[in-house]
Amino acid sequence: MKSMHLLSTAALMMLLMCCSNKPAPAQQAASENKASVAETMDEDTPTDVRSFGMAGKVKEVRLSVADLSADSEGDPWVEDNKLEMSFDEQGRVTLDFYDNRYEYDASGKFVKGNHDYTKMERDAQGRVISYGEAQDEEDDMMFHYDFTYDDKGRFAKVELSLWEQFYTEELTYTGNHPYPDKITSEGDDEGEHYSTVTEYEYTKVDEHGNWTERYCTQKTTTTDEGGKVIGTENRKTKQTRVITYY
After folding, report:
1. Who has greater pLDDT, 109 or 7?
2. Is 221 exposed, middle or buried (0-12, 13-18, 19+ CB in 10 A)?
């Protein structure tokens, strides 16, 4: 069950990190707003909020995703008002967008996560760099997320390791923009290898510069152990977020 949960989390993230083509003038204005936010984010945004791609004193983020693919049927909502991220009043992450939970004691020390022996590590800048589960207090982590940041403090790479399964995503940006233009994902599961390229376009941001609407395009290719293509999928989605602040 743990394996299925983690793989579904990785698959969901590949769906959620998306968007599409050439921006209209209004969309270009939103892009310019992002650049100005990137210059001030370090001054007034708590470390965890900034690390997870947000600005301001964020309390929680709720995400809705509508499937716009040509072959979609039935209810278009893939997710509706899902709690995606949350932070406490000190700006510490309490839920990240990989469904990892964080609890702290009165002194701010991490004390509990998703499981009894969850471990979490931070770097010298206070950013989360590792999160995972161990069998007991002494063992190494059975599964873990590793987070790598670029020189502007943005996510550059996220890796998930689980026994013989592996998932990684690399994020690319334009200039100082806080949001990635493209995410390239790779993963292996039961002898199959999948790769996904996700591109996206931001169309609305709020007064803090956090995006509230974006359109996504995503292409996934699946190959067998011999490298033969056994499946492809193209998907388009519209994502909207409702963000509350302290």
Report:
1. 109
2. middle
> What's the one-letter identity of residue 146?
D
User: Which is more confident, 166 or 75?
Assistant: 166
182-190 contact pairs (CB < 8 A, 24+):
183/14, 183/17, 185/13, 185/14, 185/17, 187/10, 188/164, 189/7, 189/165
DSSP string, 144-188: EEEEEE-TTS-EEEEEEEETTEEEEEEEE-STT-SS-SEEEEEEE
End-to-end CA distance of the chain: 36
**Which tokens in the block code for residue 106?**
């009165």
Give the residue-averaged pLDDT of 92-100: 96
Decide: 31 and 204 in contact? Cβ < 8 Å.
no
| DSSP one-letter string for 70-122 | TT--S--EEEEEEEEEEE-TTS-EEE-TTS-B-EE-TTS-EEE-SSTTEEEEE
H or E element, residue 35: helix 25-44
Q: What angle do CA 100, 104, 107 make, to 5 degrees?
A: 155
152-169: pLDDT as tens digits: 999 999 999 887 678 999
How many Å apart are CA 244 and CA 246, to the nearest integer?
Answer: 7
Longest dimension (CA), the chain: 56
Show Cβ contacts of residue 225 under 8 Å, excluding neighbours closer than 6 positions.
Answer: 191, 192, 193
Q: Tokens for 197?
A: 């390229």
- Per-residue model confidence (pLDDT) at position 140: 65
CB 134 within 8 A of CB 121: no
